[in-house]
Amino acid sequence: MSAPRPTSLAGQFLIAMPSLADPPFSRGVAFLCQHDEDGAVGLLVNQLSEYRLGDVLKQMKLECEDPEVADLPVLIGGPVQQERGFVLHREPGHWESSYRINDHWSVTTSRDILVAMAAGEGPRQALMALGYAGWSAGQLEQELKDNTWLTVEASERIVFQTPLEERWSAAAGLVGVDPLQLPGYAGHA
Quick one: DSSP state of residue 41? Predict the structure, then answer.
């Protein structure tokens, strides 16, 4: 009899417990893009970088006439490959390098989505992040056993409408907890 396959958490939030103090994960909310027996990949959705989308577009030599688009925040997606951009979005689109997370979410890494965003023709709901968070095989499962993270289905309201500084508590609220009331240590029953 073989061991049961782990359930994929792709499309869910990982919400950092108060005991997780390591930057950039402290009070972090990660959106899991991929999760299988080989590991997991996610994007932090509440850690602001020093850049705006206009800065990234200018660096890529793309013109953006819309000041609202140029002023969109760029987030720190995680500590791995911080020079690489990821666009988390709702509509799947037909982009060169896009990964369908589930029926509702996709992540795209190709230049064509940024060209479309600069022209005002990109996805209606999109978030740009630099870098990603990665977990090796079994690492995330161990962190979950150690009570490092809470998990819950990702919410588009939190990703696209909730202010960055409120996303951690709002995501924890989806689980029904106030993270500020949780102890700074993990326990096991």
Answer: E
Query: 175, 177, 183, 188: which is closest to 145 by C-alpha?
Result: 188
Half-sphere exposure of 146 (CA within 13 A, CB side): 12
Residues in Cβ contact with 18 at an 8 Å cutoff, skipping those fewer than 6 apart: 27, 179, 180, 182, 183, 184
Render pLDDT for 122-173 as a digit per residue (tens, 0 to 9): 998 999 999 999 999 999 999 999 999 999 999 999 999 999 999 999 999 9
pTM of the model: 0.90
Q: Which residues contact 165 (CB under 8 A, 6 or more apart)?
A: 46
Backbone angles phi, psi at 5, to 5 degrees: -70, 140
Q: Which two tokens stand for residue 80?
A: 């791995």
Cα 27 from Cα 39, distance rounded (Å): 22
Contact between residue 114 and residue 62 where contact means Cβ atoms under 8 Å apart: yes
d(CA 102, CA 184): 33
Q: Specify the DSSP element, H or E, that contains 57.
A: helix 53-59
d(CA 73, CA 180): 26
Plot region of 98 (φ>0 → left; ψ -120 to 50 → alpha; else → beta): beta
